[in-house]
Amino acid sequence: MGFVIKPNINSSSFHLSGRSFFIRRRQKKKKKKTRRGEMAEDQKKKSCRFWIWALSSVVFRLILISFPGNLNLSSRPEVSTPLTSIRRLAEGYWLKQASMSPYAGSMYHGSPLLLSVLGPLTVQRIKGQPSHLLCSLVFVIADILSAMLLRGIGKKLQMAYGLNARLLGLLKSSRDKGILPCGDIAALVYLWNPFTIVSCVGLSTSPIENLAVILALFGAVTRRVPLAAFGLVIATHLSLYPATLTIPIVIILGYGLDAPPIKLFLQTRSVENEESSTPTVSKQPKLKQTTRLPFLWKTVAHFLFWVLLWSLCVLVLCAFSLNKYGGLDEMFKRTYGFILSIEDLSPNIGVFWYFFAEVFDFFRNFFLIVFHVNILFMLLPLAIRLKHRPCFLAFIYLAISSILKSYPSVGDSSLYLSLWALFVNELVDMKFSFFLFCGYLGISLLSPVMHNLWIWRGTGNANFYFGNAIGYACFQIVFVVESVSAMLNHDRALKRCINTNHGEVKN
């Protein structure tokens, strides 16, 4: 006979093991909730800190505006240029009020639309308050809006950076603490940059131009095509040079935001294929995400349509504003013609004024073509090399334009420096950072000294101030070159990381 031995099953042991299982499960849920709560509290603290610093920058601007004469910053050649001076704008508005052309006095060379918006504010006075207070408040609002738009651009780029890093297998969590909040950093860099502050307090129209440029980039990043077209048209109308941003905006709308080269995603696919000899169904959507989307021609055509539409609207408004004063021909001659011909040779932080003051008139047209075409020669090679990073390409274009434009100011530098802060995650290993910081600081302090020795004291000459301008241009060139080099080195570092992962899979 066979005997069947039945195990002695204790029901209480099953009951205890079940209770312990549920207790562990509850503990895990509590830990997840506490982690989420800690992350939410951390984000709230960071946002509170950001708003404290942002509001502090606004209060600091208002304090500086309250000083009489705006600390005489509006007369500084580093702050105000023939295109951005509020004094010239006020004179143009006075001429228009006197039934004369705003361009008759050869002082105003800006947009007639900007004249219609800011002109009335230059006339109005508030008792007991400094002059041009309303214009100063407009510039403060423009700086705040620019900072908020930069923050929005940074959040989009940060999300794209984290997504690409996860697709390449370099990050495990979407909330990795190693990713810096580039949006908050860029916004605070813009608000607390001394160049931005002196441009705002010095009654320069640069904050309006910067707002238009940032608005165009924000519209492209968020894929709001009419907004991107509007910002590009207004920025080009105000200062001409932002027309170069058409290339990066088209790339953003056609291909998407900044990402590593597509070869790296293809290498990631090969690594994943080698990990499993037969591809499973669950990995198919992951493989599809590593491929770049095709060029979106419809979106680009939509953008070009809106560019033409907004351009037509701007031209109609300008023609209506200058109906009795020469029309559009007068505007093109006095604005864009003034920019390209470099008629005003008053000192500024650029190098054109000194060169064209010394060059013979016979060679003037030749060198005008050389200097202006120099910007165009750089557009295509940079677009080919940096087509996978269109936002960074826009930063490079703006920096080059700031170096080679006819009438530069510190407001132009404040724009590209804040855009540079959007790429702190990629440019963390940039070389000569401290050297460049000291260079910018030294040039900023020496420029007023050299100008004072030359113009007011008479103990120097034009070479004093021009030498300072050359040094400033050299530091900007080094800054651009090192930024591009750091970005390319970042892409190479990603490639090395993927190759090491590929080698580990083989082993």
UniProtKB/TrEMBL annotation:
<dbReference type="GO" id="GO:0006506">
    <property type="term" value="P:GPI anchor biosynthetic process"/>
</dbReference>
<feature type="transmembrane region" description="Helical">
    <location>
        <begin position="133"/>
        <end position="153"/>
    </location>
</feature>
<feature type="transmembrane region" description="Helical">
    <location>
        <begin position="391"/>
        <end position="410"/>
    </location>
</feature>
<dbReference type="Pfam" id="PF06728">
    <property type="entry name" value="PIG-U"/>
</dbReference>
<keyword id="KW-0472">Membrane</keyword>
<comment type="pathway">
    <text>Glycolipid biosynthesis; glycosylphosphatidylinositol-anchor biosynthesis.</text>
</comment>
<keyword id="KW-0256">Endoplasmic reticulum</keyword>
<feature type="transmembrane region" description="Helical">
    <location>
        <begin position="303"/>
        <end position="323"/>
    </location>
</feature>
<feature type="transmembrane region" description="Helical">
    <location>
        <begin position="430"/>
        <end position="450"/>
    </location>
</feature>
<feature type="transmembrane region" description="Helical">
    <location>
        <begin position="362"/>
        <end position="384"/>
    </location>
</feature>
<feature type="transmembrane region" description="Helical">
    <location>
        <begin position="230"/>
        <end position="257"/>
    </location>
</feature>
<keyword id="KW-0337">GPI-anchor biosynthesis</keyword>
<feature type="transmembrane region" description="Helical">
    <location>
        <begin position="462"/>
        <end position="481"/>
    </location>
</feature>
<keyword id="KW-0812">Transmembrane</keyword>
<comment type="similarity">
    <text>Belongs to the PIGU family.</text>
</comment>
<keyword id="KW-1133">Transmembrane helix</keyword>
<dbReference type="GO" id="GO:0005789">
    <property type="term" value="C:endoplasmic reticulum membrane"/>
</dbReference>
<feature type="transmembrane region" description="Helical">
    <location>
        <begin position="195"/>
        <end position="218"/>
    </location>
</feature>
<protein>
    <recommendedName>
        <fullName>GPI transamidase subunit PIG-U</fullName>
    </recommendedName>
</protein>
<feature type="transmembrane region" description="Helical">
    <location>
        <begin position="335"/>
        <end position="356"/>
    </location>
</feature>
<dbReference type="InterPro" id="IPR009600">
    <property type="entry name" value="PIG-U"/>
</dbReference>
